[in-house]
């Protein structure tokens, strides 16, 4: 058996477990209407919750940014690849979020995988919700700290772990809105535990930023909490419609992260044109109440219209509306049946979700119309009986 033979076996195993992933090439910009292999599809897949990714105003801002700042940054931020426009963006993000300072990262994956190792290392301890995003999990593993993963939202279990820990440096990490479930972490309770046991509380607001809270300021603003312990991660490729991420918090915290986060330091700075576009996106988010109200209306409409028995619509008040199917093959069959009807909804299988909880991950966007959502709900209702 050569290395290639081993790999071929692994691929065959994936195939047999219905775990092969497949990409589709879209011929149109990000929007509910997609064209795949020449066929028009109505998509419920993106994290473009406010419909900004394809917004012409944002595309204009990006083009203008490229005219003004060129294509690339030329170096890492700490060498010479940091620009006025990125500094302005960081200030804008910090004031929008209500934190002292923010640090702009190229991606959310890099922010999460860089922040945790910068704050806790060997001898430290990280406490993490078992359903946290993979980038938080990877950050935790990279840190070489002790890892304690508590059952989803189980604060009693978390408290027992915190109580038992003798580590000096401690960090609790959680998604705000869980990306495959759509439910929201009890942030005030988590902060209370962090206070009691003197831990950092790192909140990954990838799916709350732009969507939840006053003016879309996110899940932390919605919860009405503030503390120097809070490490806020926002991503800029979802509701913000562009790409990138930021860490926001107390001044010394952010200064330390800039000094120590390896995923900030050892990578070329993102193109400054993106920051120019993101300043526009921040304005659109701030003035986006109409989009958010429409989105909330669509969520209520979808949940009201759906009548499922065999499959389970999971409890969620966010634009992430998963339908739990259970079996991998059945989830795939359902996604395929929807596809045949012109509806594009991804089936999510392990390892993205726990074994036995394969699901459809429907995500709604302010760019959808009422009739888009009604069409999806009625098709699902019909398929439950015919599939
Ligand atoms: C998407 C996502 C990330 C990663 O952000 P990117 O900017 O896409 O790298 C991190 N955390 C959560 C919860 C996410 O959903």
Automatic annotation (TrEMBL):
<dbReference type="InterPro" id="IPR015422">
    <property type="entry name" value="PyrdxlP-dep_Trfase_small"/>
</dbReference>
<dbReference type="InterPro" id="IPR050087">
    <property type="entry name" value="AON_synthase_class-II"/>
</dbReference>
<comment type="pathway">
    <text>Cofactor biosynthesis; biotin biosynthesis.</text>
</comment>
<feature type="binding site">
    <location>
        <position position="235"/>
    </location>
    <ligand>
        <name>pyridoxal 5'-phosphate</name>
    </ligand>
</feature>
<comment type="similarity">
    <text>Belongs to the class-II pyridoxal-phosphate-dependent aminotransferase family. BioF subfamily.</text>
</comment>
<feature type="modified residue" description="N6-(pyridoxal phosphate)lysine">
    <location>
        <position position="238"/>
    </location>
</feature>
<feature type="binding site">
    <location>
        <position position="179"/>
    </location>
    <ligand>
        <name>pyridoxal 5'-phosphate</name>
    </ligand>
</feature>
<feature type="domain" description="Aminotransferase class I/classII large">
    <location>
        <begin position="40"/>
        <end position="379"/>
    </location>
</feature>
<feature type="binding site">
    <location>
        <position position="133"/>
    </location>
    <ligand>
        <name>substrate</name>
    </ligand>
</feature>
<keyword id="KW-0808">Transferase</keyword>
<dbReference type="InterPro" id="IPR015421">
    <property type="entry name" value="PyrdxlP-dep_Trfase_major"/>
</dbReference>
<feature type="binding site">
    <location>
        <position position="207"/>
    </location>
    <ligand>
        <name>pyridoxal 5'-phosphate</name>
    </ligand>
</feature>
<keyword id="KW-0663">Pyridoxal phosphate</keyword>
<dbReference type="GO" id="GO:0008710">
    <property type="term" value="F:8-amino-7-oxononanoate synthase activity"/>
</dbReference>
<dbReference type="GO" id="GO:0009102">
    <property type="term" value="P:biotin biosynthetic process"/>
</dbReference>
<dbReference type="GO" id="GO:0030170">
    <property type="term" value="F:pyridoxal phosphate binding"/>
</dbReference>
<dbReference type="InterPro" id="IPR015424">
    <property type="entry name" value="PyrdxlP-dep_Trfase"/>
</dbReference>
<feature type="binding site">
    <location>
        <begin position="108"/>
        <end position="109"/>
    </location>
    <ligand>
        <name>pyridoxal 5'-phosphate</name>
    </ligand>
</feature>
<comment type="function">
    <text>Catalyzes the decarboxylative condensation of pimeloyl-[acyl-carrier protein] and L-alanine to produce 8-amino-7-oxononanoate (AON), [acyl-carrier protein], and carbon dioxide.</text>
</comment>
<protein>
    <recommendedName>
        <fullName>8-amino-7-oxononanoate synthase</fullName>
        <ecNumber>2.3.1.47</ecNumber>
    </recommendedName>
</protein>
<dbReference type="Pfam" id="PF00155">
    <property type="entry name" value="Aminotran_1_2"/>
</dbReference>
<keyword id="KW-0093">Biotin biosynthesis</keyword>
<dbReference type="InterPro" id="IPR004723">
    <property type="entry name" value="AONS_Archaea/Proteobacteria"/>
</dbReference>
<feature type="binding site">
    <location>
        <position position="21"/>
    </location>
    <ligand>
        <name>substrate</name>
    </ligand>
</feature>
<dbReference type="InterPro" id="IPR004839">
    <property type="entry name" value="Aminotransferase_I/II_large"/>
</dbReference>
<dbReference type="InterPro" id="IPR022834">
    <property type="entry name" value="AONS_Proteobacteria"/>
</dbReference>
<feature type="binding site">
    <location>
        <position position="352"/>
    </location>
    <ligand>
        <name>substrate</name>
    </ligand>
</feature>
<comment type="subunit">
    <text>Homodimer.</text>
</comment>
